[in-house]
Amino acid sequence: MEIIVKQVRLLKNGPANETIFILGPTGRGKTTLVANLLSERSRFVIFDAKNDYYPEFFGGDVAEVSTVEAFAEALQNGQDRIIFRVASVDEAADELLDSALGYLNAFQFANIEANPDFPGIAVSLDELNRFAETHSCPQQLREEIERGRDYKITKIFGAQWFNSIPTWMRSSFSEIYTFQYSESIGLKRLEDYGLPADEVKALPPYVCLHTGKNGVEKIRLVPSPGETKRQHANKTGEEITA
Fold first, then answer.
1. Average pLDDT in the 89-118 region?
2. Domain 19-236 is in which class?
3. How far apart are CA 184 and CA 6, in angstroms?
4. Secondary structure of the chain as H, E, C letters
5. What is the pTM of this model?
6. How far is CA 24 from CA 95, 162, 201, 221, in A?
7. What is the pLDDT of residues 124-162, one digit of tens each?
8. What is the mean pLDDT of residues 222-242?
9. Which of 97, 105, 118, 229 is the most exposed place for a label (fewest CB within 10 A)?
């Protein structure tokens, strides 16, 4: 059958709804990779529930806040890089995260309405399992995942478990990095993304598989030239030993 080509106008002509997901247990390189992906961004917000991130890693000029009021002030003052310390992981922390994300979404939307060239921002949540489960997710986090492109927000999520991530959320992942992982249900679901279970189970520390627009590739994390292992550990809370 002949294919007829029809030119159309795009309903949504803009940045993709980008959600990067990084999977791995403690000590395998997940937090290190998250930090390095963020360091490439000019604007970001890290919601840090475990005090894993430090301004020095990003070269300074990073605001540290722990309340929505301080977060709002930092954004209004043009602060491009922010670490939001989430002191606990409970119902109060869920409400804090929801309020902060709600403010960020509104801030981005209002500025983009006034200036379509207003820059995007990356949002990182390294403990996704603690905030989003099969039957629960903060409302504004869901809004950001589903409509991130409208706010020019890229999401960079880290988690230790894949099986408990809601189906609707998994379907939004544009890229997946996975370090060594062995839970059977999660492995089966990773295979749906082209990530071979046997290979994922056998990955050594600081080696991950990445699947995105270029297919599946293997990545090994090594310290940058001139950076010692101990310096790296002090900056990220993890130490590369390979």
1. 92
2. alpha beta
3. 45
4. CCCCCCCCCCCCCCCCCCEEEEECCCCCCHHHHHHHHHHCCCCEEEEECCCCCCHHHHCCCCEEECCHHHHHHHHHCCCCEEEEECCCCCHHHHHHHHHHHHHHHHHHHHHHHHCCCCCCEEEEECCHHHHCECCECCHHHHHHHHHHHHHCEEEEEEECCCCCCCHHHHCCCCEEEECCCCCHHHHHHHHCCCCCHHHHHCCCCCEEEEEECCEEEEEECCCCCCCCHHHHHHHHCCCCCC
5. 0.85
6. 26, 9, 11, 14
7. 998 888 887 766 788 999 999 999 999 999 999 999 999
8. 56
9. 229
In the numeric block, which tokens belong to residue 32?
């290190």
172 pLDDT above the threshold of 50: yes
pLDDT at 3: 73
CA dihedral (173, 177, 183, 187) positive or negative: positive
State the Cα angle at 69 between 15 and 127, rounded to 5°: 55
Dihedral Cα 99, 100, 106, 108, nearest 10 deg: -170
Alpha carbons 56 and 51: distance in angstroms, whole number: 13
Q: Return the amino acid letter for 4.
A: I
CB 132 within 8 A of CB 169: yes
Domain coordinates in residue numbering, the chain:
19-236
Task: Give the alpha-carbon dihedral of 136, 19, 152, 35, to 10 degrees.
Answer: 100
Give CA–CA dist 154/145, Å, rounded.
9
Angle between helices 91-114 and 139-147 (to 10 degrees): 40
Cβ-contact 108, 121 below 8 angstroms: yes
